[in-house]
Amino acid sequence: MKLLTVFADQKEELQNNDMTQFCTRLEEKQLSLTSNLAQVIIGVRRSGKSTLCEKFIRQNRIEFAYVNFDDDRLVNLKSEDFDHVLDALYQIYGDFKYLFLDEVQNITGWQLFVNRMLRQKVHLFVTGANSKLLSSELTTYLTGRYNKVELYPFSFSEYSMMKKVELKSLSTKSRALRKRALNEYLLDGGFPELMNEKNKRGYIEALLNSIIKNDIAKRFKVRYVEVLRRLTEHLSDNFCQEFVASELAKTFGVSDHTIENYYSYLKEALLLQGIHKFSYRSKERIRSEKVYVVDVAFVSERDSTFSTENLGWRLENVIYIELLRRFRPQYADVFYYRDQQCEVDFVIAKEGKVKQLIQVSYDISSEKTLRREISGLVKAAEMFKCENLLLINFDVEQDVEKKNHTIHIVPAAEWLSQNR
Q1: Which of 294, 105, 303, 102 is nearest to 209 (CA)?
Q2: Which positions ≥6 away from 294 have C-beta within 8 Å?
Q3: Per-residue pLDDT at 179 exceeds 90
Q4: What is the DSSP string of 64-114?
């Protein structure tokens, strides 16, 4: 009887959601209603995974059953209870062909249940807050029978749509308003619920605490939770920088191994994103890595943060996350490059070939800055035989010729508004 009540309550809550308030997300294009693969959406907490699934299914007018496992009344549910779950769902929804399992990683043994539903030809939509959902567990139990969709907090274009900012008009007014919106986005970040939240700092502090406590410390049985918390804050303050475990181990008084483990946990919780150095040698790619936050709200809205004014790093972080949105679904990789001759913020590569080179600089009004950014692109272009060269900045739009190479200089707000 308890499960019937819980699922009936959840159904009513879902039906009362106003879909007109939902944002159209780029990742909807990656989902399929006809596939026999489980459609698995992963992402950091509160990035909108559930809303994405709900909107996609409901706008296609599909009848579906729904379970949200992030419910205090289901906290003691175990794998042996899944038959009771099915019994309650069939009573409420009838003979359903589509099943939406929300925050499924909260139940131990969920993989076996998902596998059983796939064998019974049920079309599955699954959400989870951890990349662990797609690593050892899903790979082992579903053996490739899943379509992974990575969801991040709102992109700039999604943020702008929710703010009613015009994205396509080329008028002076529209372009100026997009730049204004970008400056706000660089400070606010893209968590959907922050759009209407006055106490932004309290929201982010609570979210960060939940990720550290529930997604990391509890799951991985972390011994030094305070070290994990301080490391999280340190890396969030020093985003866009290279990760050096030995230096951090000295700073926090623990072993290199502990730092490397904690860093990997932060990435598995999708709080941080790493980027490797481009090299044709795999050993060098693995050894060097820079750190980015999944959303710049984790930089702004925390106690004791000192990074609120660094718009250059913020813009670089936003561009990196946008590159992941655009290129990971295309099976292309994003790297950075640095040697004694040049430095390039982002190298886009696919099938072993460099496809695009990108520099990011908020302000290129200084001749010295402009010369440095262009020089890095030109040297890398000659090194990697790539002619697709891009310099993203806040304000300037023009093409520059340098040593028979054309560098396209574009305003960030315009570039970020593309690809809708």
Answers
A1: 303
A2: 44, 47, 152, 153, 270, 271, 272, 273, 321
A3: yes
A4: -EEEES--GGGTT--GGGHHHHHHHHHHHH-S-SEEEEESGGGSTTHHHHH
> In this structure, which amino acid lies at residue 322?
E
Tokens 């932004």, residue located: 200
Taking CA atoms, 274 is separated from 67, 95, 271, 289, 351, in Å, by: 33, 44, 10, 6, 20
Question: Strands 241-242 and 289-293: what pairing?
Answer: antiparallel
| Euclidean distance between CA atoms 231 and 225, whole angstroms | 10
What are the two backbone dihedrals, phi and then psi, of residue 405, each rounded to the nearest 5 degrees? -115, 140
> Are the C-beta atoms of residues 193 and 203 closer than 8 Å to each other?
yes
DSSP of 226-288: HHHHHHHHHHHHTTTEE--HHHHHHHHTS-HHHHHHHHHHHHHTTSEEEEEBP-SSHHHHHH-
Name the one residue in this structure whose structure tokens are 């200084």: 366
In order, the DSSP letters of 120-168 are: TT-EEEEEES-GGGGTHHHHHHHTT-EEEEE--SPPHHHHHHHTT--SS
Distance CA 252, CA 231 (A): 8
134: pLDDT confidence band, cut at 50, 70 and 90?
Answer: low
Mean pLDDT, the chain, rounded, equals 93
Residue 103 falls in which region: left (phi positive, over 0), alpha (psi -120 to 50) or beta: left
Residue 118's alpha-carbon distances to 50, 131, 243, in angstroms, are: 20, 21, 40
Secondary structure class of 216 (helix, strand, coil):
helix
Domain boundary assignment for the chain? 2-150, 199-307, 312-416
pLDDT band at 307 (very low <50, low <70, confident <90, very high): very low
Name residue 63's amino acid.
E
Whether pLDDT at 308 is above 60: no
Q: Is 205 helix (H, G, I), strand (E, B) or coil?
A: helix
CATH 3.40.50.300 for domain 2-150, yes or no, is yes
Residue that has been written with the tokens 């002619």 in this structure: 387
Was domain 199-307 assigned CATH 3.40.190.10?
Answer: no
Residue type (1 letter), 102:
D
